[in-house]
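Lecture 7 notes: from sequence to structure.
We start with the chain below.
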Amino acid sequence: MSDQRWLSLSDAAALLGVHTSTVRKWSNEGKLPVHLTSGGHRRYLLSEIELWQKSRISAEAIDTSYLLQEILRSVRLQIQELSLEKETWFLRMDTGTRAYFRESGRNLARTLVAYLTVEGEESVAQAGALGFEYAVHCRRLGLTVKEAAQVFLFFRQQVLEALGKAYQSACITSPVAWNALLQRFSHFSDQVLIAILDHYDQRERHVP
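Predicted structure tokens for the same chain:
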């Protein structure tokens, strides 16, 4: 049986995680199901609010493909505009290696997109493989484990900023959707960083 519990305007706002003015606006626009008492006060059915919230999150999830394309576009632009010459680790690279690390930033975004759209262990394995590749190139350059981590964190920050910009551009308003996306991003990037550190650790253990 559906829940026939009635909610006030403030109760509905608290449940949806938005300001009361937002709930009032959605009600006036006909976006949110609302009932008026004989005294003209707004009342909301809990079952209707919960159903509306689920449909809203599902609808926003449909726009994920657009959101992820925006991430890739934004990362490409940001890396082109960045003054990497200010980074000490970048100055130690030759032209070919610099090109590789620029592309690695884009590759991080592409792999992240794949992870955000595909569940399962295969996606986690991709994060580990990406971290291993980073670590191998950093070691060949003679970078310390700290410098290797700085390289990755530098590009991770660019992807994170692109994620935020794409989220705003897509006009996604659900804090639930944003939180889920951010958690997946953090999990993926953490796995990459762990793989980098693990590679360095294994090599140091085998050094005579």
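Points to note: The radius of gyration is 23 Å. The mean pLDDT is 76.
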